[in-house]
Specification:
An 8-stranded mixed sheet has the order 4-3-2-5-1-6-7-8, sandwiched between helices. By secondary structure, it is α/β, with parallel strands linked by helices. Helix 3 packs across helix 9 and helix 4 packs across helix 5.
Length: 288
C-alpha cells in the first residue's frame, strides 16, 4: 500500500494560502470585474452561502469613505475592546504582511488561523469561480472571526460601498469618513457620484454618522439617509474628544476620533454595548 502523503508544514500551507488569495490580482484598475459590480455582488452572495454565511452572527460597525477609514476603524476596535467585548478588525490595504488586514482581539490573525480558514474559502472560491482577491480576503476575515468565536467586528470597505464585499450584512451602526476623489475609474468622475457609491452602506433604520463633508457630498449622504428612513448625524455635531494624543490632534484626525466616539456612543445608548464615554476616551489614548 502506498505510503500516506505527509501533510504540508505550516509554512508551506501558509505560503499556498497567500498565493491562492492573490493569484488573480489585477493592479491596473482595468479589471473587468470593476465594470460589472452586480455580477461581483451576486457571486459573493453565493460564496457566502457556500461558506454557511460567516459573519451573520456578528454585531458590526461598518465604515466607508476616502480618507480616514483606517484610523476610524482602529479607534472603534479599541473602543469596543475597552468596553469588554471580543472584536475582529478588517481593514485594507496592508503594508508588510496581509494578516495586518485581519486582526483578532488586537492581534494579527495567526498563520494557523489563516490556513484553517483558507481551506474553506478556497473551496468556496473555486466553486463560484472568479472571486477577486478582496472577496477572498473578506470571506477569509469573516471565517476567521467566526472560528475565533468573536461577538463584534469592525469592517472597512475596500472600494466604494454600495457593491463592496463588506456590504452584505446588516450593521449595528455605520460611519462615513471624509469623501474625496478616489478610484474614479470605478466610482465616477464627480464628487456626487463617488459619494453616492459610498452612501451605499447606509441601511434602513440603522444609525449613520459622518465627519464634516464638502457640501455636495453631504447633500448626497443626507438624501441617501432620508431614502433609507434613517438618521445621519455628524458634521459639526460630532462630539469633542478630550485628551487627544498628538497624532490625533490635526483637524482631520480629530474628526475621525469624533466619528468613532459618536458611533460607539450610539451603540451604548441603544443598549447594544456595555460601556461609557470614559471607556471610549481611554481607548483613544491607547489606540495604535
Amino acid at each position: 500500500m502506498a505510503a500516506q502523503r505527509a501533510q504540508p508544514g505550516l509554512a508551506t500551507a501558509y505560503a499556498q494560502a497567500v498565493h491562492d488569495i492573490f493569484a488573480n490580482a489585477d493592479y491596473s484598475g482595468a479589471a473587468s470585474r470593476y465594470q460589472r459590480p452586480q455580477e461581483c455582488w451576486d457571486r459573493f452572495e453565493v460564496m457566502l452561502d457556500k461558506l454557511g454565511r460567516p459573519g451573520s452572527k456578528l454585531k458590526l460597525i461598518h465604515i466607508a469613505g476616502t480618507n480616514g477609514k483606517g484610523t476610524t476603524s482602529a479607534l472603534c476596535e479599541q473602543m469596543l475592546r475597552e468596553c469588554g467585548v471580543r472584536v475582529g478588525l478588517f481593514t485594507s490595504p496592508h503594508l508588510h504582511v496581509f494578516r495586518e488586514r485581519i486582526r483578532i482581539d488586537g492581534e494579527l490573525a495567526s498563520r494557523e488561523a489563516v490556513v484553517s480558514a483558507m481551506e474553506k474559502v478556497r473551496a468556496a472560491s473555486l466553486a463560484v469561480g472568479g472571486a477577486s482577491p478582496f472577496e477572498k480576503l473578506t470571506a477569509l476575515a469573516l471565517v476567521c472571526f467566526d472560528e475565533a468565536g468573536l461577538e463584534w467586528a469592525v469592517l472597512e470597505t475596500g472600494l466604494g460601498g454600495k457593491w463592496d464585499a463588506t456590504n452584505h450584512f446588516q450593521p449595528a451602526v455605520c460611519g462615513i469618513c471624509r469623501i474625496g476623489f478616489d478610484h474614479m475609474n470605478v466610482l465616477g468622475s464627480t464628487l456626487r457620484e463617488i459619494a453616492g457609491e459610498k452612501a451605499g452602506i447606509i441601511k434602513t433604520e440603522i444609525p449613520a454618522f459622518s465627519v464634516p463633508q464638502d457640501e455636495e457630498a453631504d447633500a448626497v449622504l443626507r438624501a441617501a439617509a432620508a431614502a433609507a428612513g434613517t438618521s445621519l448625524a455628524g458634521g459639526d455635531t460630532l462630539p469633542t474628544v478630550p485628551n487627544l494624543p498628538p497624532w490625533l490632534t490635526p483637524t482631520h484626525q480629530a474628526h475621525n476620533a469624533a466619528l468613532a466616539m459618536a458611533m460607539v456612543g450610539s451603540l451604548t445608548a441603544r443598549g447594544l454595548l456595555a460601556g461609557d464615554e470614559a471607556s471610549c476616551v481611554r481607548a483613544v489614548t491607547t489606540t495604535r
